[in-house]
Amino acid sequence: MSDGLSRAGQRAERRAALSGNGQSRFAAAVFAGGGNRCFWQAGFWSEAAPALGLWRSLRRVAATSAGAAIACVVFAGRLREGLAHFRSAVAANPRNVYPGNVFHGRPIFPHAAMYRRALLAVIDRDALERLHAGPELLVPVTRAPGWLGTRTAFALAGLADALEHLARPSVHPRLTRRLGFAAEYVSVRSCPSPEALAALVLASSCTPPFTPTLLHGGRPALDGGIADNVPAAAVEADDGPTLVLLTRRYPRLPRHRGRRYVQPSAPMAVSAWDYTDPEGIQAAFDLGRRDGEAFASTRRPPGSDETLPTGGSHTTGIQRWKPSSR
Which of 202-225 are b and which e, b meaning 16 or more Cβ less than 10 Å from the residue's Cβ? Predict the structure, then answer.
């Protein structure tokens, strides 16, 4: 591939960096949150999915925050269109903050409107039907404990997350759940329209002040990643292992018999909420492609009848869902 790794030494180094453990025939997948860093997941999927037969084997997916947006675009078969549209929208946006909007009754931050327009531009009714026909896709929305208001809850959750990462960076932080924050999972199959799907994804991405405070199901919603940014437990079963796609590097990954954690091979320069950096988004996607190619080269399942194609829609992970026949 033109943007893949060209030297055996580079391949070996990248394979070592993509650490984790588990089996090959994945029955479930997890897309962690991470804002713009989630484009790494899109690039990874575009290479690893066709090579490993994930289109056939996956039955369940859990995806939070921006990871939910990526998962929806992937399983709706709109990955190429989604990347192109969002890159174009971000390139046309000169700033992340518009202070003058306060005098005109408009949002100071453009993120929520851009996010919603992108989802609606990319996922139409036909794409939503493909999404519904794919694996069960669960999107978490965090509910705050009843004794906290929405803004106070978000501030407390952010403080707890920062303290926990400072003391002991962990893939699955626990402090927010101990404080009473809980994830409520919603299936994308419950969304009857693209507008309802966009509302669910935005609720799972609710991060004031970049987004306004939002309701889902008539109740205040917060970013799904507050309760668990890597919701692997939501899709685990005994019919096969879970592929967990992270969006940042950790000093130590969990060792779990039923899961394969995969992290980017290098830190990404793009900021989670920088909606002015199309080059950073493309760089995250390209790193994901290289990492996905390296991962697939070591994990091709025995007896797989799918090979890495040289062209066509498979190279970007875009194809109609093929349910497992097992």
Answer: bbbbbbbebbeebebeeebbbbbb
